[in-house]
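Action item from last week, closing it out:
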Amino acid sequence: MSVTINFSKNTSAPWQSNANMLKSTREKIQRQEERDGKIAFFETQKQNLKNQKADTIEEIAKKLEKFHTYEDEIAAAKQEYNSSQMFHILDEAEERGEQMAKAAEKYKPKTEEEQKKEAQGEAAGTDGKTDDKGVLSEIMDDMSESIDAQEGNLETTGQLSEAELQQKLSDEELQKKQQRYQPFDVRA
């Protein structure tokens, strides 16, 4: 007769939220909890055997058989965990190797072409990885817009007659003088 019991704990453990922990390490901790749950279950079953009364030889034989079965289950749970640990070590080594390969890729020497592109990006004020305009390009665009606006102002100013121009200049000078001196009441 074979009985399957799920011993896994579906509770949220602190190690499950740690994003920096390796996947294999999280699985190892999960296997440890599962093993501990199985062992605790069978230890409890052994303790319950002590409370059972056995009056006949057949009852004592059944009780002894259950005791040995529980002992075998505990040993099997420990052996299962130990064999899974061997695979865990291999998985962990593989994960660490992948992490090291990614880190080595980041610090790999760049080709001349990549170095030139990066230098151009730095000079233009971009990171060189995106197609966004850099700071320098934006400044040049702003300057060309302001030059265009000034040229438009010059054209309209050239169309004004000299009398209108004199009138405009005298109005501006008057406004400047008024802005310079404004009496105020200090008693207020």
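Closing note: The chain has two domains: 17-109, 135-179.
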